Amino acid sequence: MRFSTWIRQHLAAVRALLALTAITGIVYPLAVFAVAQLPGLHEKADGSLVEVNGTTVGSGLIGQSFTDSGGAPLVQYFQSRPSAAGAGYDPMSTAASNLGPEDIVDTPARVSLLTTVCARSKEVGDREGVDGSRPFCTKEGVGAVLAVLGPRDRDGDVSQPVRVVSVNEACPARPFVAVYHGVRVDCAEPGQDYSAGRVVPIRGDASADPPVPADAVTASGSGLDPNISPEYAAIQVSRVAKARGISEDQLRALVDEHTSGRTLGFLGEPRVDVLQVNLDLDRRYPYRG
Question: Is residue 238 over pLDDT 60?
Fold first, then answer.
């Protein structure tokens, strides 16, 4: 290759690099920014920030906690959906837990999804004065799961158990069920490996439609959901009304004002804007506690 040809090719490459840098690194970002400042788009482009008396108190797109400095839920506020984004509702760490329905056994390093759901359901039930029990959960709020040890048949079932352990209830806990197929159920000894046993979740007698709804015990896919279901809002009405010294009918009317239906009538589910409900509560019915 002649030297002059080599020079021309590299100059062409440099010109292309400069042109693309100007277009994609300067012109395009400036164009997007300019469009975002148009009326109707400006607020969303800036994060849909919500201000009260000149102070930013949240975003219409990102959920937040309504807890005290120790993390305990404040009785005068509606509580948000749980979050798995960072330490909670962190837009820089938006994510789900990535745990599925088969994650039912606790380990020393991590609590299972089942036990997380059970614990949250019990906590919400105790706080709101409703039945927090769920299928496959113990009354103490852990996953009701047994490890059944013994010879296995061709299908992997243990027809004659020699030992049964409640794997999510560490000793000296009293197992949620005393006997399984004629064998006494033991609590789990810390540090012991029961992976050789067949894992058997026990459904129990809890309702298939528990009073504590799913969005009260599971995080959304983004971990940033600012809304809750009308069902979750409904079980919080009694607590918040009592704390605010107002009637439940007054509070239900306020919740209805901040309840949206399905988008376009068929997309998604009805939802309640938690931040706006709580801000409206502070404006209309200040907490006197």
Answer: yes
Q: Could you read off the pLDDT of 160-218 as tens digits, one per residue?
A: 899 999 999 999 999 999 999 999 999 999 989 999 899 999 999 999 999 999 999 99
Q: CA–CA separation, 121 vs 137, rounded Å?
A: 9
Residue 200's H or E segment, with its range, is: strand 198-201
- DSSP for residue 225: -
Tens of pLDDT, residue by residue over 111-133, are 999 999 999 999 999 999 999 99
Half-sphere exposure of 265 (CA within 13 A, CB side): 0
Beta-strand runs (E) in 53-193: 55-59, 145-149, 163-170, 179-180, 183-188
* CB 116 within 8 Å of CB 106: no
Q: What single-letter amino acid sits at 150?
A: G
pTM of this prediction exceeds 0.70: yes
> What does the block give as tokens for 188?
């789990």
59 CA to centre of own chain:
18
Whole-number Å distance between alpha carbons of 251 and 195: 50
What tokens appear for 246 in the block?
């107002």
For helices 230-244 and 248-257, what crossing angle results, to 10°? 130
For residues 259 and 289, give the distance between their C-alpha atoms in angstroms, rounded to a whole number.
27
Query: β-strand 183-188 against 163-170: which pairing, if any?
Result: parallel
Answer whether 189's CB lies under 8 Å from 108's CB.
Answer: no
